[in-house]
Amino acid sequence: MERKALLCVFFLLLPLALVSADIPVLNSIEDLRNIEFGHRFPRHGLMLLHFVSGGIYVDNNDALIPTFLPERGDWGFHHFNNYEEVFPPLQDQNRQGYYAVGNINTPTAYPLDPYVTRSYYLTRGNLERNMDRLVVRTSPNSPLLEAVYITQHYRGSSEYDPNNTYQISPNLLREIRTVMHNRVDSVHAFLYAASYDVDSRSFTRNCFATDSTYKVEDAGRMTLNESTAIMKGAVVNDHHTECYAVVLQVKSTESGYARLRWANVPDSLLDEGVMLALFNNAKNPLSSLYLDKRSYGTYDTNQYLNHGLQVKLLSKDGSVVFMSGPQYDDADRKVPVGIEGYDASLQLYTKDGYACARLFIKKTFTDWKTYFKYSWVGFYSNHNDASDSYYTYKYAIYFTKQDDANEKYDIYSYESSLSIQPGAQAQFFLTKNYNQILAETKPWER
Fold first, then answer.
1. Which of 74, 114, 280, 335 could lock 326 by a disulfide, CB 3.0 to 4.6 Å apart?
2. Where does the signal peptide begin and end (predicted)?
3. How far apart are CA 353 and CA 374, in angstroms?
4. How far is residue 7's CA from residue 110's CA, in Å, rounded to a whole number?
5. Residue 76 above 70 pLDDT?
6. pLDDT digits (tens, 9 = 90+) for 99-138
7. Is the bond leading into 42 cis (omega within 30 degrees of zero)?
8. What's the confidence (pLDDT) of residue 122?
9. CB atoms < 10 A from the CB of 47, how many?
10. pTM of the model
11. Does domain 202-324 have CATH number 2.60.40?
């Protein structure tokens, strides 16, 4: 009787075990062509895979070497509990983990490149715009990744779909990186090679707001020219509108204020009258500008540069949102840079238009204040300035600890008196002199 009971339990658990252990492996871009994942507008999965692949180097032994740290939260990676057992059990629960990225409906996703998030902001209310995820498994003994997976939610659900879950082989990652290095238009070339469905009819309904008086007649009629792999646009009022070509950005002025940048606004909308507006999380705009006949340009506002700012293209009375740009990332979409020789890293960011810095200290680096007793961070208005020409500085041990739920890192920050501006940089010095620079951030973008 006991034997029969054990067999019964075994067979009940068998399907679950097979689902979590026997995940299909995709070995080439050609393998991507025959799966559902991310192939229709406004799905973003293929763009997400392309983006993350650019941050994973594959060596001759198929080792996966990331230029980002998922456990640090780079690009919005967060701990994935695997409660549904979609993926194989971890060998070491304390020293390795699963980390997921791709949920655009969260401020931690702002660092993702706009080409990953664009379809999300074009399709308010669409149940397919935020389904796709990429998951990595970290190694217990090294900074390498053990595996990379793609998966998706069921439509309209937060549950994961094991039947649309795949492992990405080192060879496929290598192939995507080859496309990235050999093609200027690598995103479009990759989408074409992976058979992205450019005739997705949902684009027709969602290129603009569904209650708009500007009817999208054939916005799904996007095509790819095989030789150039350039994505073409939609038709609005019999005028070609390259929806994916419209640029709506928030950038920095020389004094830490938000600069609006726009380009490729279609004539059909300019003729009717449109305006740009800058928003935070509130409903009312912080600043606005009527475009008249200007299809491109910049506009400097009097609003301090902050996390989450977003520029939107509106009807002239402000009642209709045609499209939205990406929400602004306070770190300029740059991952932290490692402090050479230590389990710590440095990140430049902005708050209220000022240059600020974060120190990420790994929790296992418990005596960091002893090693960094005389370490300091210098703030520079221009990355070409000499090391002793800093605008201001702060000793690392006097940075303020932040309330953060990161399981692997403690985060410390300092808000300087330097206005954030293009070319600004933060540098980490080990001692009081200027000859031991252990980290320097990438210059702030224009």
1. 114
2. 1-21
3. 28
4. 49
5. yes
6. 999 999 999 999 999 999 988 988 878 889 999 999 999 9
7. yes
8. 81
9. 24
10. 0.86
11. yes
| 8-20 per-position pLDDT tens digit | 444 444 333 333 4
The Cα-based distances of 110 to 58, 188, 205 in angstroms read 26, 22, 25
Q: Which residues does 86 contact at the CB level (< 8 Å), separation at least 6?
A: 19, 20, 151, 160, 162, 165
Which amino acid does the sequence have at 212?
A: S
Question: What are the structure tokens assigned to 311, written together?
Answer: 């520029």
Report the DSSP pairing between strands 234-236 and 98-101. Answer: unpaired
Separation in Å, CA 291 to CA 122, 186, 215, 389: 20, 32, 21, 41
Structure tokens at 412: 């410390």
